[in-house]
Amino acid sequence: xxxxxxxxxWETELTSDQFxxxxxxxxxxxxxxGNIPTTMTATLRSVLEAKLVSIGKGLPPLVILETxxxxxxxLFDLQGLRGPPGNEPYSFxxxxxxxxxxxxxxxxxxxxxxxxDEELNFIWRNIDGTITSRFFSxxxxxxxAFFWCAPTKExxxxxxxxxxxxxxxxxxxxxxxxxxxxGHRLIRIDVPVAALVGKRLRAPNTLDSGANPAFVxxxxxxxxxxxxxxxxxxxxxxxxxxxxxxxxxxxxIHRLGMVTSKVPHIxxxxxxxxxx
Amino acid sequence: MTDYSKRNNPKFSQHDFDNPxxxxxxxxxxxxRDWLRRALWVRITLPLIIPPASxxxxxxxxxxxxGSAKLxxxxxxxxxxxxxxxxxxxxKAVLDDLLIISGRLRAASSEASIADIITRRLGDSxxxxxxxxxxxxxxxxxxxxxxxxxxxxxxxxNVEYAAISYRALYRYDLKYAETRLQDIVSIFQDxxxxxxxxxxxxxxxxxxxxxxxxxxxxxxxxxxxxxxxxVVEALRCAGVFNAELFIRAKPTHRIKVFRLLLERCPPSxxxxxxxxxxxxxISFYSLRxxxxxxxxxxxxxxxxxxxxxxDSIVSTHELSxxxxxxxxxxxxxxxxxxxxSGNEWVN
Lengths: 276, 347
What we know:
Chain A is an alpha+beta fold.
């Protein structure tokens, strides 16, 4: 069936700016390289067409796209066809604030939020010390019901080579953590292998990335995705997305360090070139 | 549940992805409110991008905190409106994020809405407990007031909220630190890690060592004797109950602490307590009396800076007539004494 007029207009508007065009090209890359089922094109279109009928006029095309992805997790989350082999240990990196607000027992490690610098400093200083695993509580996820992680050994290698702050800065760039600017403190959390048994692990695809421009799909035969290295604009560290899991005392946390430089200037044309 | 996805969203350009704050500054109050609604209810934050290492509430609040006074003031007006709009059928994550933004932006005008949500609009599910904890900690951050003190008092006896409420109350009036410490110790008696954290937090919040000493005096007066060892141990492990603390306190105050400790700590715990204090520079000197009983007579405080002072805590007329020997508890005798001269300890 030909696309509806509303869909055609939406697509034209989407591709009229660079980020919209990049998104569509990345999605087509995923389809073309077997990262997601070919039927996903029709699925996305039909959901978008339904939304375009009900939604108000004037919404930016990327907002409409993100809306349908957010509203339909069963259709669009973790739909990648490729996955990593074996049971490798994984880790993920988060901001100190995220750890403080979402990964600690709230009843004692309360954070007085209006003057939270002092509270956050306390938590930062006491990671690996007073803040033992007994205080771990929460769910490992992003604002969607899955999280992004990388093989622990790849992150450890970088940490071992550099001083803490330098390692945090390099990992920010290597993991494509766009917008984590100078001054952010980063924590690495190691996921116990047992926590991921029976969970869906996938190479990430464009639907998982939402509108994040600092994501590039990969067709690597090893079953992993690759991060976008912000400094070199190349595919870099192996990565996967994994289904949400509980966070408890079986995890290990490590204070990585503070990012000490601004996010490098990113050539989006260079990013686009990776997917053509 | 309202479908906020259909609301208007102001236009943005690719440039705004690199600098979303400038874009946010340009919005009218109504547009900013619509954007926040969409961000929280529909989870669409564009042109603000949420990196996988972060979360919506953290990125939004961090970005807004860097904004102009006008932007922050506008957000402080919007947040209570959104809190009132949140309904029981809305996702819990929306409320959690709103509370974080409210706290980090110091939207104190949300106080009444948050209090209402905590007391009337949440149930008792695990999620509700966590949201109530978040709400109470945000109210605590605004500063406990005459209006909210009864709320914190109400939750002080519930283990899920006791630590948050205790902190809110003593930051409001330090008397609470003294009068309610025993309640806290009882509530967390089966959870020494958590008690340790509460005590550490208390010490961090105090302005001076003498405040802690004063709190200890009041606590020891009312303490359940069996809990004294746990509390002192928590303070010791937290690095706050040590010689340094007492050297900096008023002599009369520190003597009160140790007199009360010796009077109120059960004999079965006392020896263990004294042994644990020796590594932190607090040594007790006993006198063995002719009848064989020991009487703790003096305390010395040895700080890391090699400052050393001693207190005699028993006046000579309290001693039996014939004093035989003195020694440091748990160690070899340091010195023999023959006489006690006034209240001065002779070493």
